[in-house]
Amino acid sequence: PPPPPPPPPPPLFFFHPQPGYAYPLWSRGLGDVYKRQVAVVGFSPNKERPSHYVSMYMQQNGYDIIPVNPGHREIGGMVCYSMLESIQKPIDVVDIFRRSEFVPKIVDSAINIGAKAIWMQDSVIHEKAAQKAEANGMLVVMNDCMLRQHKIFKP
After folding, report:
1. What Rg value do the Cα atoms of the chain yield, rounded?
2. Are residues 144 and 19 in contact, defined by beta-carbon separation less than 8 angstroms?
3. I need a surface site. Which of 48, 49, 65, 96 has the fewest CB within 10 A?
4. 75 in Cβ contact with 97 (< 8 Å)
5. pLDDT: which is higher, 110 or 139
6. What are the angstrom distances between the C-alpha of 95 and each of 5, 71, 116, 139, 140?
7. When comparing pLDDT for 63 and 4, which is higher?
8. Distances (CA, A) of 58 to 3, 135, 140, 150
């Protein structure tokens, strides 16, 4: 008899109805996507803002963080880009710290640059944009915190 078919891949689309829901992204082998370049759209220079301290935590844990904020040239000692398309190296994850109404344009830019994943932080929800990203082969995480998930499921 022929061998059994391989198991289906894990779903690409993760929706967390409530922030803080611990979904084992790293334990399911998805952590490799988050190993290299993370473009943080909405990175704030204000150290009190989640976009700042989450990004700095991820940088301290070996991630190459690339700030994206058109109002700044540098944040946290890193070159800051005005838009995703300005970044001259491949991006693995686009981490979104913007209000939900801005997500569709960010997803379009992420698709244009060939990013592998979209990560929408707590309270950032846009199902239509998430579906578009998924249809373009991207992993999507919505309404969850990368720092929290990393602390729970460090690769």
Report:
1. 15
2. yes
3. 48
4. no
5. 110
6. 34, 18, 11, 12, 10
7. 63
8. 42, 27, 18, 8
